[in-house]
């Protein structure tokens, strides 16, 4: 995701490939101000408890799911189980029960038994965003994995480089960091030479931000394209430049390959390219997807002269004297699939250029003479894909092709659903309504079975699914033991009396935790902000999902809902909010509940809205409560974060921030708003979090996403003011000592100097108001995952909602030694009160 400084910060391994412990390295943490001396509680002792003194308490983060998310019918029977987005799959060519998956932000997981059990393998690596995994066919113990997800979504993270495993995927090392800040889309390994591999990369993003965005790119990212290595991935040569979304190699001649450059918004470099000599040379393939425009030049030639009424009248004819032929590639993302049984067969799929949130299928073509000078192409008919003109079709995001292993005339398409083309027509094989396979499908691979049978392994927004032999439409989910949910927001029972939490996740609903790692669905869509009442935490909840419509001229429905019976049913609770931006501009409408008044909520479109009867009212009523916010270009800008002052029990003091870094604060419930940064000293980046000191409303903290280099001269990610209501408040940069997006923050209600920050890599904690920082990473149980929300109960127990590894909670472990093993034999949960 970032270059050397990023690799060091993310891996906490001195930037040295090969270390596999994930401890925090002081020498690796550098900022523009130079080496920072940190006061750090060494995380390794938190894990290696056998070295701790007898009876000494240690801190440790532990995962509490979801594992998986259960969808129940009206009789509480489980009808579906989901986990999180899977972007890469690989099946061991020597053992069809041994699989590796790459989760969008959950790292590599390994199963030795066809998905019955799963084990995380890269929690301590520099990046947990995954895009491609490939076994070496000649040596299956050798596996390459490209970090960074290549699906162009707002929360697609760029990676840190190329990983390698020498033991079939159990242990991993960073091999090549030159790909940092980009995302891998494909890796192909020469079946005859494991040191010869080809990789394709695209752009990727970082940090919490506007989820509807598709143009994220980490500052300073290197060029993307097609890369060739002949020395096992140590060095690569870039042979094509562009957003490379597809790569196929002739299974019998690795020198023959096709690649697709497919920038989703269109680009002059987009197109299909072919090499027959390992990319020493290549050519663009002018298939029927190329639009040809011919213009003609005409010259008037006199052919006769007639005398009419004494006047010479010349008759002319138009003769074509020249032509001008122009060609253009009208499409966006490209998908490809080659045939294992017939190397001359190739399928090419082209998506339309993304417009708003939509990208339709431009077409799919096949050829049976892929290596001829001028291949002959046949266009396939269009499948009847889902199209709601809001979120589908979305071929810029989900688009994969796979050829039947035994029949080159049969091809499979993964998009919102899964389809098979055979004998001139398409058949639907997987959808949510009939087969309970999660939609938004990204990747397909074959799992060989006895004889000539095969099963399809499918990765999508819900996790991993395995078809029956022959792929006739029967599927088994393999998500029961995966913990890869991408939470956006969460809520805990603030009273601390109940084992209860809510989490809103990317395309995996809002679900509830009640003490066991399987969670249950309580709300649909892409789950967003949520809240639990303090008066009746078991029953009264607020949940939300992505905006329902993409209407640019009228009303867009805000998906905030209320349940009064613990999720058994819910009702719309924000119909008064009338100015929501379209789905493609503001994916979520964020909200926050007041800490001492369950009825008081604020929510942000481009205006702040206020509700004072959320749970008590027959229908919650909202009123506009602040000014409409505008960006410098005059466009409306969404509100991205907000917070109440806990020291004000009346709920009159609160603040909010926007996606372009603006702040506003009120001390009288919205009657008057002021700008706490009138001098514009803070970074003009996405405001990701706000928090007031628990006992002083004049002290306000704000976190920013993004990187320092994106706003030169305004470094920092966490700032504090102690005079928020002054005419010109004074702000102090108290950021953790790494240039990484800060995504959220929380302050201990009992110890105001204890600040927690959720970053793109784990959690940072300061116990002295930002003077010094402790990092919680893999050695303390926290994977190197992005943390999107932090929530505390009244006792100070902190919970992290991660964007790739579910929900993780911090606790004290009470250590009692075991003379045989030197390990923990008893653990107790303890809060920080």
What does this 3D model show about the protein?
With 833 residues, the protein is mainly beta. It is built from 3 helices and 62 strands. The strands form 16 sheets. A 6-stranded mixed beta sheet has the order 5-4-39-38-37-36, with no helix packed on it. The chain has a 4-stranded antiparallel beta sheet with strand order 3-62-61-60. The protein has a 4-stranded antiparallel beta sheet with strand order 6-7-8-9, with no helix packed on it. The longest helix has 8 residues. It is globular and about 90 Å long. It starts with a helix and ends in a 19-residue tail after the last strand.
Descriptive labels:
40% strand, four-stranded antiparallel β-sheet, 2% helix, mainly beta, single chain, six-stranded mixed β-sheet, 833 residues
Work out the helicity level: under 10%
**Secondary structure tally, helices:** 3
Number of strands: 62
Summing up helix and strand content along with how strands pair, one would put the structural category as mainly beta
User: How much of the polypeptide forms β-strand, as a percent range?
Assistant: 35-45%
The shape, in one word, is globular
Largest sheet: 6 strands, mixed
- The gyration radius over C-alpha positions equals 28 Å
Mean pLDDT over all positions: 89
């Amino acid at each position: 995701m970032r270059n050397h400084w990023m690799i060091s910060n993310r891996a906490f391994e001195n930037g040295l490939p090969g270390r596999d412990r994930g401890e925090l390295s002081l020498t690796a943490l550098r900022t523009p101000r130079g080496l920072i001396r940190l006061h750090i509680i060494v995380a390794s002792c938190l894990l290696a408890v056998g070295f701790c003194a007898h009876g000494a308490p240690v801190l440790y983060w532990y995962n509490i799911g979801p594992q998986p998310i259960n969808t129940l019918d009206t009789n509480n029977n489980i009808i579906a189980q989901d986990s999180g987005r899977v972007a890469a799959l690989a099946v061991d060519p020597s053992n069809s029960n041994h699989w590796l998956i790459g989760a969008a932000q959950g790292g590599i997981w390994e199963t030795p038994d066809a998905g019955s059990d799963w084990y995380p393998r890269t929690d301590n690596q520099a990046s947990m965003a995954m895009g491609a995994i490939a076994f070496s066919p000649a040596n299956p113990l050798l596996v390459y994995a490209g970090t960074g997800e290549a699906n162009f979504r707002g929360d697609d993270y760029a990676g840190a480089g190329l990983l390698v495993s020498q033991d079939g995927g159990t242990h991993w090392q960073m091999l090549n960091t030159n790909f940092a800040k980009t995302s891998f889309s494909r890796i192909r390994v020469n079946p005859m030479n494991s040191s010869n591999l080809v990789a394709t990369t695209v752009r990727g993003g970082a940090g919490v931000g506007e989820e509807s965005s598709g143009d994220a790119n980490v500052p300073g990212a290197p060029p993307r394209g097609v890369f060739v290595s002949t020395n096992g991935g140590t060095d690569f040569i870039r042979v094509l430049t562009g957003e490379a979304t597809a790569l196929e190699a002739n299974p019998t001649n690795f020198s023959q390959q096709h690649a697709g450059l497919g920038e989703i918004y269109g680009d002059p470099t987009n197109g299909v390219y072919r090499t027959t000599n390992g990319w020493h040379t290549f050519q663009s393939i002018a298939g029927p997807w190329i639009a040809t425009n011919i213009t003609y030049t005409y010259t008037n030639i006199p052919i006769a002269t007639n005398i009419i009424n004494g006047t010479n009248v010349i008759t002319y004819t138009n003769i074509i004297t020249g032509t001008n032929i122009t060609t253009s590639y009208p499409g966006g993302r490209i998908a490809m699939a080659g045939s294992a049984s017939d190397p001359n067969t190739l399928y090419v799929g082209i998506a339309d250029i993304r417009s708003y949130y939509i990208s339709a299928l431009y077409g799919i073509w096949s050829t049976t003479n892929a290596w001829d000078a001028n291949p002959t192409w046949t266009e396939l008919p269009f499948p009847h894909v889902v199209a709601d003109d809001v979120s589908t079709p979305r071929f810029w995001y989900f688009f994969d092709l796979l050829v039947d292993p035994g029949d080159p005339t049969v091809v499979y398409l993964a998009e919102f659903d899964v389809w098979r083309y055979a004998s001139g027509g398409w058949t639907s094989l997987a959808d949510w309504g009939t087969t309970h396979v999660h939609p938004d499908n990204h990747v397909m691979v074959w799992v060989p079975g006895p004889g000539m049978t095969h099963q399809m392994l499918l990765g999508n927004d819900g996790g991993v699914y395995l078809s029956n032999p022959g792929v006739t439409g029967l599927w088994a989910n393999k998500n029961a033991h995966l913990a890869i949910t991408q939470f956006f927001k969460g809520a805990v029972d603030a009273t601390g009396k109940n084992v209860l939490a809510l989490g809103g996740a990317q395309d995996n609903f809002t679900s509830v935790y009640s003490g066991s790692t399987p969670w249950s669905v309580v709300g649909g869509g892409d789950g967003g902000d949520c809240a639990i009442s303090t008066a009746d935490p078991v029953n009264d909840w607020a949940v939300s999902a992505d905006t329902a419509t993409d209407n640019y001229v009228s009303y867009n429905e805000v998906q905030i809902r209320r349940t009064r019976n613990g999720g058994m049913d819910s009702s719309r609770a924000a119909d008064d909010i009338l100015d929501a931006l379209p789905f493609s501009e503001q994916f979520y409408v964020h909200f926050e509940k007041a800490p001492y008044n369950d009825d008081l909520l604020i929510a942000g479109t481009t205006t702040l809205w206020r509700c004072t009867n959320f749970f008590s009212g027959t229908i919650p009523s909202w009123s506009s409560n602040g000014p409409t916010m505008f960006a410098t270009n005059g466009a409306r800008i969404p509100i991205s974060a907000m917070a109440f002052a806990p020291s004000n029990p009346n709920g009159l003091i609160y603040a909010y921030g926007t996606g372009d870094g603006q702040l506003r604060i009120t001390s009288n419930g919205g009657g008057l708003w002021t700008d706490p940064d009138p001098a514009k000293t803070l970074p003009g980046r996405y405001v990701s979090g706000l928090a007031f000191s628990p006992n002083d409303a004049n002290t306000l903290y704000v976190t920013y996403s993004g990187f320092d280099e994106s706003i030169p001269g305004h470094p920092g990610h966490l700032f504090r003011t102690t005079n928020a209501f002054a005419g010109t408040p004074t702000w102090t940069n108290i950021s953790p000592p790494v240039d990484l997006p800060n995504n959220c923050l929380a302050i201990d209600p009992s110890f105001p100097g204890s600040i927690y920050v959720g970053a793109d890599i784990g959690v940072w904690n300061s116990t002295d108001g930002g003077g010094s920082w402790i990092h919680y990473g893999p050695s303390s149980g926290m994977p190197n995952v992005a943390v999107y929300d932090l929530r505390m109960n009244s006792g100070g127990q902190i919970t992290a909602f991660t964007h790739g590894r579910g929900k993780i909670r911090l606790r004290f472990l009470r250590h009692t030694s075991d003379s045989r093993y030197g390990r923990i034999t008893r653990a107790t949960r303890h809060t920080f009160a």
